[in-house]
C-alpha cells in the first residue's frame, strides 16, 4: 500500500480568500496524479489529471501544479466562494492498476 | 455525461446477513472499482475489474466478493456482514488504457451493519 498524504486535513477560510493545499506521493514509478472534488451528498468529480513533471492545470479559479521528482502537487483556489466548500481528494497512480487516495482536505468557505 | 448509479444511498443490515451492493455505469467503461471510505482514512480499494468476469483484489478484499457478469454492472457482495463493514461504499468506473483516464464515481452507499 502506497502512502499518499494530504495537508491540511481541514481548512476554514473566508469568502474571497485564496487558499492552497498539498498532496504528497511517492516520487518513483509515477504515472498520473488526479484531483477530485467531493461535495456532500454528491459523487466525487474529477478536477484535474496530471501526468508530466511541471504540469500546471487550470479550471476557472482552481489550478494545480505537479512536481513528480519531489513527489508533491498543490491545488490552489483563488477567491474562494461558498460553493467551493467540499472535500478535495488527490489520487496517485503508479505503473500498476490501482489508484491510491489521500485522506482529503475538507474546505469550508465562510460567507 | 457518464452516469454511475449505485442502487441504494442508505442501507441498514444485520450482522451475518448477505449484502449486495449494485453499481451500474452507462458509458461502456472497461474498468470498474469498489472503494470504501472511512473517517481519517483515504478511499481504500476493495476490488476492481477490467473486463467481464475478470476481477482483482485491492488492498482490503477480506470479507468481500464481487461479480461482473455484464460490462455495465459490478456488484459487491458482503458474504456475512459484520459491524466493521459499516462504511461508505463508492463505486467508480473508467476507460481502460487511456493515459488520462479519470474515475467516474457513483454517489455512494452508506451501509450500517447492526
Summarize this structure as a short list of keywords or feature phrases.
heterodimer, A: 111 residues, mainly beta, five-stranded antiparallel β-sheet, 11 strands, 0% helix, B: 114 residues, four-stranded antiparallel β-sheet, 50% strand, globular
Explain this structure to me?
- The complex is a heterodimer of chains A (111) and B (114).
- Chain A has no helices and 11 strands.
- Chain A is mostly beta strands and 111 residues long.
- In chain A, the strands form 2 sheets. In chain A, strands 2, 4, 5, 9, 10 and 11 form a 6-stranded mixed β-sheet that branches.
- Chain B is mostly beta strands and 114 residues long.
- Chain B is 0% helix and 50% strand.
Describe the secondary-structure layout.
The complex is a heterodimer of chains A (111) and B (114).
Chain A (H helix, E strand, L loop, with lengths): L4 E3 L2 E5 L4 E6 L5 E9 L6 E6 L5 E4 L2 E6 L4 E6 L8 E9 L4 E3 L3 E6 L1
Parallel strand pairs in A: 2-11
Antiparallel strand pairs in A: 1-3, 3-8, 4-5, 4-9, 6-7, 7-8, 9-10, 9-11
Chain B lengths: L3 E3 L3 E4 L5 E7 L5 E7 L6 E6 L6 E2 L6 E7 L2 E6 L8 E8 L9 E2 L3 E5 L1
Parallel strand pairs in B: 2-11
Antiparallel strand pairs in B: 1-3, 3-8, 4-5, 4-9, 5-6, 7-8, 9-10, 9-11
Offer a quick outline of the entry.
The complex is a heterodimer of chains A (111) and B (114). With 111 residues, chain A is mainly beta.
Largest sheet properties of chain B: 7 strands, mixed
Please describe the biggest sheet of chain A, giving its number of strands, its sense, and whether it closes into a barrel: 6 strands, mixed
The radius of gyration over CA of chain B amounts to 13 Å
Q: What's the helix-strand series of chain B?
A: EEEEEEEEEEE
Question: Which two protein chains have the largest interface (Cβ within 8 Å of the partner's Cβ), and how many residues from each?
Answer: A-B, 23 and 25 residues
Structure annotation, total helices of chain B: 0
